[in-house]
User: Fold this.
Amino acid sequence: MKKMHLFLILLLGFALESFSQESKAARDQRMEWWRDAGFGLFIHWGAYAIPAGIYNGTEVKGIGEWIMHTANIPIAEYEAFVQQFNPVKFDAKKWVAIAKKAGVKYIVITSKHHDGFCLWDSQVSDYDIMDAAPFKRDILRELTDACKAAGIRICFYHSIMDWHHPDAESKKDYTHQNSPNPDWNKYREEYLKPQVKELMTKYEPGVMWFDGEWIPEWTEAQGKDLYNFIKELNPEIIINNRIGKGRKGMQGMSEYEDAAGDFGTPEQEILEGTSAYDWESCMTMNDTWGYKKNDHNWKSAKQLIDNLIDVATKGGNYLLNVGPTAEGLIPPESVKRLQEMGNWLKKNGEAIYNTRSRPNYKEGDHYKFTVSKDGKYTYVIADQFTGSTATLKEINPRPGSDIYMLGLKKPLPWTQLSNGDYLITLPKKLPGKYAWTLKITNP
Ligand code: FHN
Assistant:
C-alpha cells in the first residue's frame, strides 16, 4: 500500500510541476478561438427529462436535473427513467441549425451529469445511451458530426460527482449508492479518467467543462492531475476552472493564482466589471438547466440580449442554456428567444465576435464598449438613445473617419464639441430592436 501512495504522490507532484509551464503566447493562441466566439449554447439533457420535474405526481422544487437527489429517488427507480429515455424526435442537424441561426459559436452538452447516465457509447460503462436506454444511438457522435459540418465547436460538460457509480459515493454530501466501502481512487483512475479519455479521443471536443467538483473527495491536486492528463491527450483543449477546487462559489472566478483550469465560471450571474482572467457566465433561460414541464419563467429576448452585451463588454463569454424534452425537442420558448438573439447578432455580431473588452467598458447607463481584437475599431453598443443624437466622451474617432451604425450602409454625421465630447447624429429609423451599435474607427 505504501508503494501505491508513494507512486500517487510522485504522480501528483509531477502534475503540479508540469501544470504551469505554458507560455503566455502559447496560452493566448490556444484560447483565441474561444475568446473570439463570445456566445455558446449550453445543453442539459438526460433521463431527468422523463420526470421533467414531477415525481409521484408531485412537483419537485429546484432545478430539473437534480430530481434524483432532490426527491431522493432510489437508484433502481431512477434507472427506470433511463429505461424510458427514447428521444425519437432528436435530430442533431436540427439542433445545430437552431444554434447556427442563433449566432452560437460553440455548444457545451452534458456528456454525463451528476446522475451518472452517459449520452455516448462508452466502453467503460453500460450505464449509457447504448446499453441502458432503448434509444441505442450515440447522441454525442451525432451532435459532434452535425457541429463539425456546421462549423460550430462541440464541447462537453462532465460531472466529477456521480450518484450512480458505487465507488463515487460522496459520504458527506450525497449518499445515493449506499455502497459499503466506496473506493474514490478506483472511481477516479478506473472510471472518471478513462471516460474523459474516451470523450477526448472519440469526439475531440474544444472544451471540457467540468462540474460537481465541490464534493470533499475531490481535491485541487486531483484536479491538476486530471488537467494535465487531458492536456497530454490534446494540448489545445480548453478546460474550465471547475476541474479543480479553485472556484469561488457561484461567482465562479478562481480564488488562487495557480488554480486548475483556463477560465472562470460565474453561474446565473455576470461579473461586476472586467477581469484580467478569462471567464464565461452560464445562465438558464428559465429557472432550470434540465427540462421541467412546468417551468414557464422565461427571460425575455431583450433580457438575454442585454446579458450577452453586458458579458461581452466586460470581456466574458455568454453560455446560454436549453433543456431539451424527453422526446428530443428544444422547447419552442427557447427556440423563439434564440431566433431573436440571432436576428440581433446578424446586425450587431461584429461588436461581439472577435472583440475584446477595454478598462472603461461603459459610459453612463446606456453605452457599453467593445474593441475589435486588432484594435482598429471601438464599438459603442447602446440600449437606449435620447433624442436624435448621441453624445460620447469615451470615444476618440480618427479625424476624418466615418462612423457607422451596424446594419446601415450610410455613415452618420458627427462632430467634436468645444468641450471635447463627440456628437453623432442618429439615423431617423434605427435598424432592428433592443440595442444598436456605433462603429468608430480608432486613431
Ligand atoms: O449542479 C450543477 C447544476 O445541475 C448545473 O449543471 C449547473 C450548471 O453550471 N452547475 C451545477 C450547479 O452549480
